[in-house]
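Today's session is about reading a structure prediction critically. Students often jump straight to the picture, but the first step is always the sequence itself: look for stretches that repeat, for charged clusters, for runs of hydrophobic residues. Only then move on to the predicted structure, which in these notes is written as discrete structure tokens rather than atom positions. Here is the chain we will use throughout the hour.
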Amino acid sequence: MGEQQHVTFPQEVIDEYAALGVDLPALFSAGHLGTRMGVQIVEASADRVVGTMPVEGNTQPYGLLHGGASAVLAETLGSVGSMLHAGSSKLAVGVDLNCTHHRGARSGLVTGVATPLHRGRSTATYEIVISDEEGRRVCSARLTCLLRDVRPGDGAPVGATG
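Below is the predicted structure for this chain, in token form.
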């Protein structure tokens, strides 16, 4: 856990941020919480974000994947998609997260796939499906992010996901 992740961004996205003096691949991460939980983003675009997370270390007392861990993975993936949709002039801030837990997972990796349900000028909504290693759905989630203009003092444009 906590290793540097490698994400492949579309070249036009890298170029957009580079024009602002931002090295997007260097700045991109799941944040401190995601790093502690072992979240790895393996694919990222406004159309589809894929990430994994180990079950080990993210369980509740019964040894099952914690529902809150699934929520962290879902919000991370949906926020990344929203950020990439919004572009470098906006911040994506999660305002609503809904998770339905279908089955438990006791080991291995879970994989989340976020796809857009709505992409507007002021909000973006993503559906996130989290599955176990056998492809069984563990959790269905929906995240809506507010897309607001970057203001002076907000910091790096990619700093506010989730």
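Discussion point for the tutorial: The chain has four helices and six strands.
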